[in-house]
Amino acid sequence: MKKFLIIFILMLSMSSMVFAASFDEDVDRFMKWITGPEELEDWQQGAITDEVYCLAEAIYFEAGNQPVVGKIAVANVIINRTWAEEYPETICEVVHQGPTRESWKKDGTFYPIRHKCQFSYYCDGRSDTPKYGPTWDDSRDIAEIVILERDFFITLDSVEGATHYHAAYVWPRWADHMQKVVQIEDHVFYK
User: Fold this and answer.
1) pLDDT (tens digit, 9 = 90+) per residue, 162-177?
2) Is residue 99 part of a domain?
3) Are residues 23 and 72 part of one domain?
4) In terms of residue numbers, what domain contains 170?
5) Separation of alpha carbons 133 and 168, rounded Å
6) How many helices (H) and strands (E) does the chain have?
7) Calpha distance 167→188 (Å, rounded)
8) Fewer CB within 10 A of the end CB, N or C, for the chain?
9) Cα 55 off chain centre by
10) What letters, b where the CB count within 10 A reaches 16 and e where it falls short, cover 147-181?
């Protein structure tokens, strides 16, 4: 809990949107969120919300080999999409967006169509179950922090509103029609 409190206070102090009058209120809301009986118990037991899991999963598979700034940038793109009208409103819907097909068993189970998803890991035909370890722990921590930023209206968007990115070694058709914002390690970001 100390780690989250320290990170939260640092985020607030770095944000250009922090005003002295609202700082105490934000800290109070944060402490109630962190130390509420259900939330504290879930946090201590390692339970996470669907939103945190979906964001951590995307960070893990899309930027697991990137430094922290690269992981945060990918998370910011996903958050930015939840705010854009042309994308779904929830993190899980954004991360899992793409066409699906029904299972050959015709049992009502649907699977993403290979190589047609917004985030390539989700429909590449490989397992979407992360291997628990340091990369997953980092991805989960970053997901929790970025979601806290969103929930407390802190704007530390490292990609300046970007809603798209791609690996530096590919050039998708859509890149010609968008404004390049920044390149962070192996990813190029656009809006």
Assistant:
1) 999 999 998 888 999 9
2) no
3) no
4) 50-88+125-190
5) 27
6) 7, 5
7) 6
8) N
9) 4
10) bbbbebebeebbbebbbbbbeeeeeeeeeeeeeeb
How confident is residue 152, by pLDDT bands cut at 50, 70 and 90?
low
Two structure tokens written together for 149:
């930023």
Tell me what the mean pLDDT of segment 62-83 comes to. 93
Assigned domain for 105 exists: no
34 and 62 assigned to the same domain = no
Cα dist. 36→25, 29, 51, 67, 144 in Å?
16, 10, 19, 32, 16
Residue type, 10: L
What confidence tens digit (pLDDT) does each residue in 3-42 have? 554 455 445 444 444 444 444 555 555 555 444 444 444 4
Query: Tell me: the pLDDT tens digits for 114-139?
Result: 777 788 787 777 877 888 899 999 99
How far apart CA 98 and CA 22 sit, in angstroms, is: 40
| Structural domains counted in the chain | 2
